[in-house]
Specification:
Number of helices of chain B: 0
Helix content of chain A: under 10%
Radius of gyration of chain B: 14 Å
Structural class of chain A: mainly beta
Order of helices and strands of chain A: EEEEEEEEEEE
Largest interface: A-B, 30 and 26 residues
Helix content of chain B: under 10%
Radius of gyration of chain A: 13 Å
Largest sheet of chain A: 7 strands, mixed
Shape of chain A: globular
Distance between the termini of chain A: 36 Å
Oligomer: heterodimer
Number of strands of chain A: 11
Strand content of chain B: over 45%
Shape of chain B: globular
Structural class of chain B: mainly beta
Chain lengths: 114, 114
């Protein structure tokens, strides 16, 4: 089944404790991205990757890192999480970075930073 | 930055009625997409309409696009309780440096009562 898989689905942790949210897609998609969703703010893009070893900042990249060593994986790293990073996170992918591609979303990761 | 803005923020109707949601955006686009999000889940792509199209249908969904007014509407006909979800519009941009990126609105929460 074609899908985008995120892990974990839920995580409660403390300020400053490094964490990684994994994202994997099995559709051989070139383009992958991370969003955060907050009440009243909609979805905001954190980082995106147009292909292996190519990543770029979205609208809210501060406090986050990403890597794209393989086509299928695009982990989101919070080196020193803070409470303002408490949010619902989504990974998405689409076949290529062009104008006419719908995005496929994972089911989300709910992070709570205490 | 946020391109699309949905209106209304919330919509409550009875089963069998039609639901209309609107989206306005700010800059020129290549396409506009509509997504649906069930509570606690990832977004699911519904329909994509290109800037040179005025109307598109998919089952009970009808999307219109008016590029002169920078607006789009999503019509769900004969709504069902299972249509209860949040609906988001997403736009790209015609600026080449942001190829592949999507900009989401804050969404319309649709509730369909049995």
């Amino acid at each position: 089944e074609a899908q985008v898989t995120q892990n974990p689905r839920y995580l409660i942790t403390v300020t400053g404790k490094k964490l990684t949210v994994t994202c994997s897609q099995n559709m051989n998609h070139e383009y992958m991205s991370w969003y955060r969703q907050d009440p009243g703010l909609g979805l905001r893009q954190i980082y995106y990757s147009m292909n292996v070893e190519v990543t770029d900042k979205g609208d809210v990249p501060e406090g986050y890192k990403v890597s794209r060593k393989e086509k299928r994986n695009f982990p989101l790293i919070l080196e020193s999480p803070s409470p303002n990073q408490t949010s619902l996170y989504f990974c998405a992918s689409n076949p290529r970075a062009n104008y006419h591609q719908p995005q496929h979303f994972g089911d989300g990761t709910r992070l709570s930073i205490l | 930055s946020q391109q699309g803005e949905e209106d209304p923020q919330a919509l409550s109707i009875q089963e069998g009625e039609n639901a209309t949601m609107n989206c306005s955006y700010k800059t020129s686009i290549n396409n506009l997409q509509w997504y649906r999000q069930n509570s606690g889940r990832g977004l699911v792509h519904l329909i994509l309409i290109r800037s040179n199209e005025r109307e598109k249908h998919s089952g009970r969904l009808r999307v219109t696009l008016d590029t002169s007014k920078k607006s789009s509407s999503l019509l769900i006909t004969a709504s069902r309780a299972a249509d209860t979800a949040s609906y988001f519009c997403a736009t790209d941009t015609d600026r080449g440096s942001t190829l592949g990126r999507l900009y989401f609105g804050r969404g319309t929460q649709l509730t369909v009562w049995p």
